[in-house]
Design brief:
One of its GO terms (molecular function) is heme binding. It is found in: Endoplasmic reticulum membrane; Microsome membrane. This protein is an alpha+beta fold. The chain contains 18 helices and nine strands. The protein has a five-stranded mixed sheet with strand order 1-2-7-4-3. It has a two-stranded antiparallel sheet with strand order 5-6. Strands 8-9 form a two-stranded antiparallel ribbon. The termini are far apart.
Length: 498
C-alpha cells in the first residue's frame, strides 16, 4: 500500500508548493489604502479582482466599487494594476488640470496586434502628436464644424430620408442605413466623395468596422487583453481576436486601394480631402529621415477616423430614435417645436439657438446613452501625485465617463431620460459642465464639433418627417433600453419609422 502512494508524492508536493506560493502572494498583496496607493479590493494572484467584476458590464462593476473605495481607486484586471477615476470633479481634474500627466494612451494587446503603434487613436509619443495635430488641422480645413460639412450632412440626410420612406411605414432595423449615412460624412471628408449605400465594398467596410466595435467589447477580448499569452496556448479559443484582425486587414486593404486611386489623380492645387492633404505632406517630407508621414500612418489614421466617426455618431443617433419611440410625449414636444420654428423648410445649424428643447433632448440622448462608458483608457506619462495618492508612470488609468454622465451630485435624475437637465426655468438651453460624452483634455474626441453638427441635423431632419414608434405588438414600456455588449454601448434595433 505504501509503495502505491510513493509515485504520487512528487506531483502532490508540487501542487501543495504552488498553492502555498499563491497563498503567500495573496497575503503579501497590497491591502486597501496601504501607503500612498489608491485603495481598492485585495487582488488574488494572477486573477486580480476578476471574481468581483462582470466583464460584460465592466463599467457598472467599477461604478459599484467606486461607492466603496471612493473617486480614485485601484482595481486589478488580472495581473494588471489599473487606477479608476470616478465622478465629474475627479475625472475633470485629472484630464484637464493634469492633462500632460494623464495624457498617454493605454494600448491594449489587441490594438497592438492590429495597429502596430500606427494611426492616431492608439499611439503615443511624437508619432501621435504629429498625427493628431495634422488630423485636427485637416478635419477643420475640410469642413469639420463649417458650412462645407453642413452641406454634406444635409445632402446625406436627404438620402437617408429616401431610404426610410422606402420602407413605407413597415418596421425595420435602422442600424445599417443610419451607419451608412454617417459613414458617408467622414468618407466625404477623408476622400472627397460619398458612396452609394448599395456599393458592396462600402457596405462591407462599414459592417466590418461595426463588427469590430462589437467584438472589442466581448469578455473574450477583455480576457485576452489581460492575459495576452493566451494566444500561444489557447489560440484556437480566441475566435473574436482572429475575426477582429481579419476585419482590420480587409479594411486596410480597401483603404490602400482608395488611397492609390487618389494618388494617381492627385492635384496639389485642388485638394479633395484629408487623404490628398496627407499625400502632399508626404511628398514634401519624402527626403526627411524619420518622417511620420508614411503609408502606415496614413492608412491606419484613415481607418481610425472612419471607424470612430461612424460608430459613435451612428450609435448615438440610433439611441435617439429608440428613446423617441419609448417616450412619445417628448417626441411630441420636439416635433411641435420643429413645426413652429422651422415649418416645412430644411433645418440648418443656425436653427439650433431657436430650438432649445430639441437641443436639450439631443444632449440628454448623449448623456443617457453613455456610449463610451469607460472612455478610451489612458496611461500616466510620469509619476504623479493625485489627490494624495502616488500613481506610477505607465499605470493604466480608466476615466469612468459613466460616473460623470450619471454623477448624482451633478444631475437631478441621473438614471432617467430628462431633457430638463439642459433647460432653465424659462425653457432656455443651458450648458452643464458635467456633460462630457466626448471626454476632455489632450485625448478628447477629435471629431466633437463634426459629431455635434451631425447629431443635430440628422436628428432634426428625421424628426421633422417621421414619427418613431415601437414595432407592432410592443408597447413603449416594453422597449428595452439595456445596451448590447460592445466596445461602445449600442441600443437594440427595435424602433420603426412611420
Amino acid at each position: 500500500m505504501l509503495e502505491g502512494l510513493l509515485p504520487q508524492m512528487p506531483p502532490l508536493l508540487t501542487l501543495l508548493g504552488v498553492v502555498l506560493v499563491l497563498f503567500l502572494l495573496y497575503l503579501l498583496s497590497s491591502t486597501p489604502g496601504q501607503g500612498k496607493d489608491p485603495p481598492g479590493p485585495r487582488p488574488l494572484p494572477l486573477l486580480g479582482n476578476l471574481l468581483l467584476l462582470d466583464l460584460k458590464r465592466l463599467h457598472l462593476s467599477l461604478c459599484e466599487l467606486s461607492k466603496k473605495y471612493g473617486s480614485v481607486f485601484t482595481v486589478h484586471l488580472g495581473p494588471k494594476k489599473v487606477v479608476v477615476l470616478a465622478g465629474y470633479k475627479t475625472v475633470k481634474q485629472a484630464l484637464v488640470n493634469y492633462a500632460e500627466e494623464f495624457g498617454d494612451r493605454e494600448i491594449a494587446p489587441v490594438f497592438t496586434d492590429a495597429l502596430k503603434g500606427h494611426g492616431v487613436l492608439f499611439s503615443n509619443g511624437n508619432s501621435w502628436k504629429e498625427m493628431r495635430r495634422f488630423s485636427l488641422t485637416n478635419l477643420r480645413d475640410f469642413g469639420m464644424g463649417k458650412r462645407g460639412s453642413e452641406e454634406k450632412i444635409i445632402e446625406e440626410s436627404r438620402y437617408l430620408i429616401e431610404v426610410f420612406e422606402n420602407f413605407k411605414g413597415k418596421p425595420f432595423n435602422t442600424t445599417q442605413p443610419v451607419n451608412y449615412s454617417v459613414s458617408n460624412i467622414i468618407s466625404a471628408i477623408m476622400y472627397g466623395c460619398r458612396f452609394d449605400y448599395a456599393d458592396p465594398a462600402f457596405q462591407k467596410m462599414v459592417d466590418r468596422a461595426n463588427e469590430n466595435i462589437r467584438l472589442l467589447g466581448s469578455a473574450e477580448i477583455r480576457l485576452y487583453n489581460m492575459f495576452p499569452w493566451l494566444r500561444w496556448c489557447c489560440g484556437w479559443w480566441l475566435v473574436n481576436r482572429t475575426q477582429i484582425l481579419k476585419n482590420f486587414e480587409k479594411n486596410i486593404d480597401e483603404i490602400t486601394g482608395l488611397v492609390k486611386g487618389l494618388k494617381n489623380t492627385l492635384n496639389s492645387q485642388d485638394l479633395r480631402g484629408f487623404v490628398d492633404s496627407f499625400l502632399v505632406r508626404q511628398q514634401e517630407e519624402s527626403d526627411q529621415l524619420g518622417s511620420y508621414f508614411h503609408n502606415n500612418n496614413l492608412h491606419y489614421t484613415v481607418s481610425n477616423l472612419f471607424g470612430a466617426g461612424t460608430d459613435t455618431t451612428g450609435t448615438t443617433l440610433r439611441w435617439g430614435l429608440l428613446l423617441m419611440a419609448k417616450y412619445p410625449h417628448i417626441q411630441d414636444q420636439v416635433q411641435e417645436e420643429l413645426s413652429q420654428v422651422i415649418g416645412d423648410r430644411e433645418p440648418r445649424v443656425e436653427d439650433r439657438r431657436n430650438l432649445p428643447y430639441t437641443d436639450a433632448v439631443i444632449h440628454e440622448i448623449q448623456r443617457l446613452s453613455n456610449i463610451v462608458p469607460m472612455s478610451l483608457p489612458h496611461t500616466t506619462s510620469c509619476d504623479v501625485t493625485f489627490q494624495g495618492y502616488v500613481i506610477k508612470k505607465g499605470t493604466t488609468v480608466i476615466p469612468l465617463l459613466t460616473s460623470v454622465l450619471q454623477d448624482e451630485e451633478e444631475w437631478e435624475t441621473p438614471h432617467s431620460f430628462n431633457p430638463g437637465h439642459f433647460l432653465d426655468e424659462k425653457g432656455c438651453f443651458i450648458k452643464r459642465d458635467a456633460f462630457m460624452p466626448f471626454s476632455a483634455g489632450r485625448r478628447a474626441c477629435l471629431g466633437e464639433s463634426l459629431a455635434r453638427m451631425e447629431l443635430f441635423l440628422f436628428f432634426t431632419f428625421l424628426l421633422q418627417r417621421f414619427r418613431f414608434t415601437p414595432p407592432p405588438g410592443v408597447s413603449e414600456d416594453e422597449l428595452d433600453l439595456t445596451p448590447t455588449v460592445g466596445f461602445t454601448l449600442s441600443p437594440s434595433p427595435t424602433c420603426c419609422a412611420l
